[in-house]
Structure formats: structure tokens, C-alpha cells
Queue: 2 jobs
Job 1
Amino acid sequence: METVIGIKFNDFVLIATDMTAAHSIMVMKDDEDKTYNITNQVVMGVTGEAGDVPRFAEYITQNVKLYRMRNGYDLSIPAIATFTRKTVAEHLRSQSPYQVNFMLGGYNPIEKKSHLYFIDYLGAQVDVPYGAHGYGGMMTITVMDRYYKPDANYQEAYDLLKKCILEVQKRCIINMPKFKVKISYAGGVQELPIITKDNIEQNVIVNVKE
Amino acid sequence: MSIMDYNGGALIGMKGKDCVAIATDKRFGIQAQTVSLDFTKVFQINPHTYMGFPGLATDIFTVYEKIMFRKRLYELKENRKISPKALASMVSNLLYENRFSPFFVEPMIVALDEVTLEPYMCDMDLIGCVNKSDNFVVGGTSSSQLYGLCEALWEPDMEEDQLFETISQALVSACNRDAISGWGAKVYIIKKDKIIVRDIKTRMD
């Protein structure tokens, strides 16, 4: 029902999530934030069962913070992905499995490398250049197959995301008028302009603080 | 559709003359939707010991991690590398511990014994029933196609080049008749003095 999209480029990663919070057939709000900043460099877009999403995302965030306090340095991005996957997989065979799907991404300025992981509610983890969860994935992956190039600049990347979202809003029966976009790059994690049904046809200039 | 077919995938192990080979496809999907084209299901356990995990992607990682944990403890305790036969028992044991809520993987071990360099090959079902083989082992969603091809193409005492050709042809042809595996493949040839890893192009449709 919800959509989260992630795209990895050579020196940054984009994560976009829709902003609707639905309950049964009713839309409760249209400014829900389903992205979570795990560290200064890592951002996670989460979809799934309403209560599970914040609970699980905050559990991961706080444990990664705890690791930093104990050790004096952050967990690496692949390690955060492994930890997230392991937590999902451990709960899978318990009485209360978490119904959550992630696109977890980040840029590491030290090794100058970006990472993007696709993790589903079963705990399957895949390293992907681009990916999406939910019904939106069915419309967007093909768009990215056609237009993705790893060396795109910020503006080209944002416009590719707009192409994907345009397709979701055009073809998906579920109403997803707003998408929150976050970028992880050498300067940290930053929010980019929200993509809405109204501004998607316009040319939005992307300003990323260097 | 069975949970074993949820993510798709195909694997083969084959025995040659003083060498063994293991091959995997690269597709990762969620039912019919392809998500990744770079998802190999083969792991190096020791220099001459490889394992392949056909089945549910989450359990591929879970079982692999649990096996590595036990294997490392074993090697620390014994102060030597684990033999493929002991590894098979270890995996079988782990799987049977979960007899009534199993991990949905059917692991295969393809190896040369680290001491004697004797080829060893086996696969097992999801609850750890070991099937030792002297010719080939297959697994994954296209296992019936793979059985047919291996039965037709395999012959005893193949050298490394012929073994590579046979295992590749078997995997590629089987994947072409299976919608949820394929999209590229990777072949590992294990010899006593070297490991040869090759990526194979396959049909991408």
C-alpha cells in the first residue's frame, strides 16, 4: 500500500517515501515521515504495519547510537544493514514478527563509497543499485532500469526520482500525492524538496549544501 | 506456490577428476518480480570448501551465519580446519534442531577435503537429511530441469575445462526453462592448487 524508493549513485544515495498514513480505506494524514536518520550518514526509508514501523526503526536507531557511545565510532553501513536484517530475522520466528520493509542507504565519505540495501520483512537483504518496496515498486523499477546511470548529478538524480513518482501517481490506484526525499552525501543527510502532485510537473532546482 | 520458491534460484554441484565445481544463478526476486541481478547463493567456508544455499533468501543468510559461528568454534576448539564430512554433519544437525519450524534452505556442500584433497559432495533437505553424491547435486526452483540436464551431460573423470563447460551448460539450459531463476550465473571450479571463478552471461528475458 505504501511506497519506498532508494537509488544509489557514485557519491550519494537518495531515499524517497510516500507521506500518507492510511488506516483501512481511510487516509489519516498526508505529512507522515517514514524516513529515519540512523547516523549522520545513513538514512532508512521504512514501510509496513503502522505500529511496527516507528517502533522498529527507533529500536535500530537507538542501538546504533548506543554502539557509538560504547565504542566511540559509528557502525559501518554494511554492519547497520546486517544488524537490521538480523533483528528482523530473529523476530520472524517469534510470536511477534515485525512487518517492516526497508531501503537502507548511506554514503561513506572516508571510503568514498555509497551503499544501498533492500531488506524485506522476512529478513532478505540484497545490495542493490536501486530498488523499491510496495506496489510502487512494480511501476518504478522499470523506469529506473531505463534511466538509471550511476554517475548522475544531484539534479539528474532528483529528476529520475520524479519520473518514478510520476509513474506511481499515474498508474497506481492508491493515492500517494506527496513524497519525502532525503539524500545522503559527503556533507551528511539532508532533506530535498518534497515531491507533490502539484510540483512534479514543474522544474524544481535542487540545492545541496556542500 | 511453496515458500521454497518465494525468491527463486538454481544451484548445481558437480564432481570431476580431482576437482569439483559449484554453480549458482544470480537472480533474487519476490515471487515473479525480479529485484536484483547480483545475488549469489554460494559461500566459501574454507579454502577448498564451498556451500550453496538454495531456498528462502532470509534463511540463506540466517543458516550461513549460524553455520559459520559453529564452524569457527569447532576450528578453535580442534585447532584444525573442518572436514567437509564433519561440516555436513554440523549443517544437518543445525537443520534437524529446527525439525518442527525448519529453515527453508536445502544446503549443498561441494569441497575437496582440506587434508587429503579428496572430492566431497552432498546436499540435504530442509530438515537435514544428507544425500552424499559421487556425480552431481542440484537444488533450487529448477531442480527437476537440472536433474534432467545433469543426467544427460555428466560423465565421470572430467578435467577442469570440460567440467566447467558441463556445469555451465546444465545451469544455463535449466534456467532458461524456469521463470524465477537465471539472470546471469557464477561458476566456481575448485582444484587443489587454485579456485577458478567465472561469471556467465545468460538470457536476460
Job 2
Amino acid sequence: MASSIENNNEKLTLKSSDGEEFLVEKHVALQSTLLQNMLDSDCSSADVIPLPKIDARTLALVLGYCKKHADASSSKQGELNSFDSEFLKDMDMGALFNLVLAANFMEIKGLLDIAAQKIADTIKDKPHQEVREIFHVENDYTPEEEAAVREENRWAFEGFP
Amino acid sequence: MKMAFKGVFRKFREMKDDSKNKSRRRADRKCMHGRGRSHIAPESSPSPSASLVQESRWANLPPELLLDIIQRLEASQTLWPARRDVVACGAVCRLWRETVKEVVRTPEQCGLLTFPISVKQPGPRDSPIQCFIKRERETSMYLLYLGLTPALSGDFSKLLLAARKIRRTTSTNFVISLGAEDFSKTSDTYIGKLRSNLLGTKFSIYDCQHPCDHAIQSKGRSLRNCYSTQQLSSRVPTGNHNVATISYELNLLRTRGPRRMFCAMQSIPISAIQEGGTAPTPSTFRSCVDERCSLFSAAKGKDLKFGSSSPSEPLESVHDARDPLMLKNKAPRWHEQLQCWCLNFKGRVTVASVKNFQLVAAVEPCHNVPAAEQEKVILQFGKIGKDIFTMDYCYPLSAFQAFAICLSSFDTKPACE
């Protein structure tokens, strides 16, 4: 990790929730609307920008995505698309959750798009009990509501192979 | 810099509030003060406590992200059976349900059927919803499926409604249900029925739900409210509300010719097809028997026979808007070469049958219904094969109402032909 004081204008330092610092090129950081707004509002790059809630592992992933997109902005779109589809492949739900939160917080639209889409795809073709398990959502229905919901689901699911 | 950070810190604080994880919070604080260095994040270590952290975190998915995710799912799953994924999301928990209800639009707005309540909501205004009906003679069942034809949609046709014909000495009843397993009137799947008179010339459609329960989905209403009065408890004493009357004109001369039919839709005011008008759209299966409904009380007391409204009445314009919507079958034209009566079904009906029909609005000049609306085929029904019929309906009819009208065409009417 480079010390934050000697950073030149082209770099800035981001600090993860677990205290790890990342030296980032400015044009890479600009992929994040949050960072862009901070830089626009007269933010000196000598400061360390803390990103609580984003751990080092997630931040590394996020910056990897940003770097690819910042560097490839003028190159082929097809290459980026294949990078995007590979990027989230085989990612576990915990990492995906951290990533979508980070993308949301740092306002990185492209990353938010692919992460949210990946989560939406995870829900597909699953009964609600399974969705509950995957997302660890507590069933807060009363028994009556639960019965009504079951009835609704029976109509939606019955008759299909 | 300070200004910018102020905003960012506010954002951090908001994020912190929804977290219940104290160890994470401590780590954040350290970070804010710029003390901590290279701590190992709990997530990266696969200890049991780490998975617990994940569990609680998914539950705290920010509502705007959940909305985004469900919007994506809804937009991609437009065809059945994929559409059931949207229904499954609505069953996860209260927050998910609220979010799904916010995303899913009515058939009138999006042309798609999603929740079972969709069959009680008006169809789209422009292009009709295309369905087919299978008749099972041995079980006296009629099955309404969403789809173009059985051949085209095959096993993936969504069963919308099922009806069973029950002959009595004085009338014929068609019990209409959400499923083909249970046709008892106390069942949660019971939707309503169609009953004929002795001659089979007049039919009444009964809805288990009060027709003026047209609480159009309001954004601000919480799910708790929707549910507290909904289903089960309130559905048990099932009501029978006459929502429409279908009459087939008697053919006393016994000359062979096309049928003439009229439908008085007591639950749909004529204003529904006037400029800017809306049709009742229930948002739940909640029955509100006790709820007073001023909109239809005027129409209820009136003679519903076709063409009986007297224009000399006081408060004419008010009464006109509340008049029930009347539908009539489009008169077929006599085809000289083919020597038969013809209607243009635009390829959706292929077999000549006395049962085939197209319904359009029957309006009077004082109703001020746009010409385009008067021309529009609201419901069309016809034969495409042995025991297979198509049914295409659109606004302001619901699938339930359309199905019930079609069922009346199945019942033999010796006096009408």
C-alpha cells in the first residue's frame, strides 16, 4: 500500500472497512459517481477516502471491475460484455450481496446492473420457500396470510410439468 | 472536501443504522478514525459466525435494491410458466410482497396476468388477451387457458379458470373455480357461477365478491391492511352477487338464423368506455358484503332490459354514466357465395358454429361513447376444433366475466335456434 501523502494528482487512496488502503488511478475511480462527485466538489486527492461497509475483498473486486471498464472504454463492447458475464460467474451469494451493496453505495451503474440482474436470475424458477432460504428472509406471515399465499401459489404453479 | 465528506458520512451513518452486526460496526468506527489497518474482514473467513452475518444481511437488503431486483425479474418473466416466479416472490415475506405489488401492474395496464386476482381485473384496452377453452364432455368441465391454441402453447398453457356444468331440473349451473379440483362453493378457489333460466334463454353471472369492491391498488396502502380483511376469514360466507345478465333473443318463428344476444354488465358502468373512464378493478379477493356502494345502487334499481332507458329522466347525464354497460353480438353478414352467415374473426375462429360470436358495446347517442369504442370487439368466442374454442377478451371485461359469457353460449338453447 502506498502512503497517501505522496500521491500525485492522478491517484487517490480508498480505504476499506477493514482498514486496507487501495491506491487508485483517478480515471478508474471516476467509474463511481460517488467518487466523481467528491472529486468534482474540490476534493483533494491527498486525502484518504474511507469506504466503511465495503471490505477489502469486495473493494478489490469493485476496483477490478472499474479498471477494466475505465481502460476499455474506447475498445470493443463485446470484450466488456464477456468480461461482465465472467465477472460474476461462480460468485457465492455472500460475495454477491457485498458487491451489490458496494455498487449501490459507490454508484457504479454498470456493476449495479449486472449484480442486480444476477440476483434476479437467481430467483428464477424457484418456489418461494427456496427463495426464502437463499436470501435468509424470515417468513413474517400470520398462519392465515400464509394459507392465502399458498393458495395463490397453487394457482400459479399447478398444471405445469 | 469537508462539505463532500459531510454528505458521505451521512450516507455511512444511514448504512450503519440498518446493520445489526456489532463487530462490523466497530470495524467501521475504527476506519472512520483512521486507526485500523489491514483487519481481516469477517466475510472472508468461512467461520460459522460469518455465515450468520450473511444471513442477517440479506434480510437488510435496502428496499430500493430489492425493488430493482424484482423489477428485473418481472420484466423478464412475462410468459407463463416463467411468470409464476413473480408470484413466488410475492409469497416470500411482507416486504417482498409489498415490493412485488408495487411492480406488478394490472392486465389493463400491461396486458399480462400474474396473480389469481388478474382474472377478475379488466383486460387490456388495445390488444385482447388470447385464451382458449377446452371442453371435457365426460366430466362436464370447461377449462380456460391462457394461450393462442393448445397446439401452440402445449403443456405450457396456463390454466386460468375451470367450470363444471351442473344440470338441475329447472336450470343449468356452471360453477367457476380457480382450479379444476374443487367446485364446492365454500372452497377458497370458488370464484362465481353462471345460472340459466328454465328455457336457457337468460343467464345470470354471479360473483362471489361484491362488484363494487373496486379498491384500485393504492400505493400508500400497507400490506397489513390489504390482508387483515382479506381471504379465508372474510371469504368463508361466500356471497353471490349478480354482476351480469345475458339474454338470448327468442326465435319464435323457428327460422334458422344467427343468434342475437345481449349482456347487461351490472358491475361495469357505461362510463368505463367513455372518454377517460375506468372499470372496477378489485385488488384482492376480499369480499366486502357490507360495504355500501353508491355507484351501482342507481343502476341496480333500474330495469336492465336492453333499450329501456328513458331519455326524459331528470339528472339524465348522471344516470347515463352510471348505466350498466350493455353488450350485443355483432350482426353477421350473409355470404352469398358460401350461403352462410359470416363474421371476421381475424383467423382466430376456424369452424362454423352457432356458438361463435363477437360482442361490441351497445350504446345510445346520449352516452357519448367514442366511435372507435363502439366498433371494438370486446369479446370474441368461436370454435377451432372438436371441443376446442378460442376466447379473446379485452377491456372492460375480466377473464372471469368473459369466460362466464362464453359458457352461456355452450348451453343448448332449443328456444333460440
